[in-house]
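Team,

Forwarding the record for the chain on the shared tracking sheet. I've put the sequence and predicted structure together so nobody has to dig through attachments.
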Amino acid sequence: MDDLLADFLTETDESLAELDVALVKLERSPGDEATLALIFRMVHTIKGTCGFLGLPRLERVAHAAESVLGRVRDRKLTVTAEIVTQVLEALDRIKAILAGLRADGAEPAGDDAGLIDALDAIAERRARRAPPADAPPAEPAAVEPAATAEAAAGSQTIRVGVDVLEDLMTLVSELVLTRNQLLQLARTEGNPAFTVPLQRLSHITSDLQEGVVKTRMQPIGNAWNKLPRLVRDLARDLGKRIELAMLGAETELDRQVLELIKDPLTHMVRNCADHGLETTEARRAAGKPEAGRITLNAYHQGGHILIEIADDGAGLPTAKIRAKAISLGFATEGELAAMTEAQIQRFILRPGFSTAAAVTAVSGRGVGMDVVKSNIERIGGTIELKSVAGQGTTVTVKIPLTLAIVSALIVEAGGERFAIPQISVVELVRARTAASGNAGESSVIERINDTPVLRLRDRLLPLVSLTGLLRLEDAAEAQPGDAAYIVVTQVGATTLGIIVDRVFDTEEIVVKPVAPILRHITMFSGNTILGDGSVIMILDPNGIARATGVGVGGGDPRAARREAPLAGPVLREADSRSAMLLFRAGGGAPLAVPLALVARLEDIPRARIETSAGRPVTQYRGQLMPLVPLSGALDADRARFAVLVFSDDTEGGPGRSMGLVVDEIVDVVEDRLHMQLGGARPGLLGTAIINGAATDVIDIGHYLTLAFGDWFQAAGPVAVAADVLVVDDSGFFRQMLAPAIEAAGYRVTAVASAAEALARRDAGEMFAAIVSDVAMPGIDGIEMVRRIRAGGPWVALPVIALTGQAEPADIARGRAAGFTDYVAKSERDALLASLRQCLGQGARHLGLAA
């Protein structure tokens, strides 16, 4: 292929991309003469060049399209959808011919008679109305200055092959490496004679690097050129009215990144048109404008490009996504109940996931968004979803400006150095591992349910040890009081702290691809060469988050539970330390609640609070969650409310949640929970010394029954004590009952199954009484009490049945098996009275055979 033909192909491709956009614009604004003149000029240029190069097939198709456009320009025809569609078909045919010409160097064979006849038939039609007598001339004398301006602009530009720019970028990358090596030598050798020249070399290298990067930058609008045509065709195929708005098209990013995001952007726009926007009839019924709107917006933010793809449609169908996730085996109903609505919506990013009812030409094959997510993450980007039912969906893509040379933070873990891209680093924190008695202090690494966390300002930050994660041989267990460095990274909408041994400096690094043998390790995004010649790996925070299951949507849904760092068992024996959440409500001193009872901490705006049956509620995980203000009423002047969420999500449980509205979260501390004074009023368990101050501990059971009067009738509690053993498979009720029983003066030990209780008996442990659920998996309460009464050290112990089934027949069956008493779970006063009676009068009231 000669150079002339190659230049023709390149220029024609650019013209065709502009023509797609211009024709769609002309259809919306038929009176836009500037756009019409641009279209006609481009088609005329293509036709003329084809004749010069001896390309008769291309020339005939272009000539037929030019004839139609000429009649429109001369006001013999009025712009209609039919005319635009026919001209677009001609452009598609030209693209197909160009593809064959590029592949073989000659025009491919083909018959264009039908297309040309259709164009000629349109060109021969009469105008629908005569042009006004004072109409301006068809070709005003002002086209010539435009041509002159184009020629002047052309003299300021030069066309350069992409491969030339790639080679130049490679050379600059090597220069950056050499610069880094020289700077390293200067630091180690300490020769002042090299200081000034090296600083000058460093500045020149940085300027050269910046200049080369600029040559690779292109407006993101270049990736959007085909979208107006795509949306127009989709609207016709789907029978919808769709408007496309593109903002920030001038935002520039690296050409390599631009090429990699073209297909993901196209797919997301197709999803908006097909899945997101309702039909015209549905929008009219919902009181929306008949024309749906898709908005693209691109802008810079902190070394990234953010691209928002939004629609004003119906929003993601959370119920359908939930049902599909269950049918595909991605999650169970119990696991879905523990997820937020946003986490459930991210299932659409999983491979093979689609809610389309049937396979169409547009969608329904179960492929697409998972590929979009993979492509975005492959270039170091992230993808986030935000959907509101009835209002629409916004997909936010965050990608780096360039992939070739990036600024990175150099760290060390287990004796090895690694690079973390600076764009992923939020901040650095120096902390200590928790020593005895130091829990609750700031900048101390604590553990909740064996998961390391750091209390960073107003939240708990999940942590992962890089040494432990990579299983480095030099890993040594941290001792209490040891210093540690935490790199706080942004992973999607969440943050993750990476524990490292040392932090060095930031350095501009050249990104090299990961070797094939290591590509299965997703924690690495590449490797680089440092100034001292060392080859180190570049860490991918997204891959680290996936490996640890922290806050990454589209991955294993079972890992979503780990996003709630405040969850986890803290029930211990009475002389051990428990994590307590301190908060304020209604003014005054802080109040406390066992941290393990709290499922989540939420910050809810007033706009999300509704009223049901005269009580405040909010939509939470697909259900209405009652809100109980601890101070008695919601503050009318407050815009946002801190809410402690309590949930019972155990299998077979009610799956309900209650939100306790407080004024503010104060702290999380670890201390011994020993009740010293009983509760003076409803809602208080009593008072304990927490963090060195007398603190009232609230009675969660009181507030649960205010939200749901039957809360305790559906699921079972388990609590065990030093003197009172509580047996229940529900961790929630174990955590709730232990403080209540302790407040009455007992020491409590809790187990989660009858088998564990019987194992304690066989190990020789003794208790004053046993409180047990009746319905439990495996060995139930009936079978457990039968085994106890069969003989052994516990044969005479009082065993109180605690259950939601308290009918006469159930009570008779329980007493026949050997239960001393039968108490409903909602009647905690009756439970305490039963304990007092059983322990006060001993075995004389057991009603047992000798």
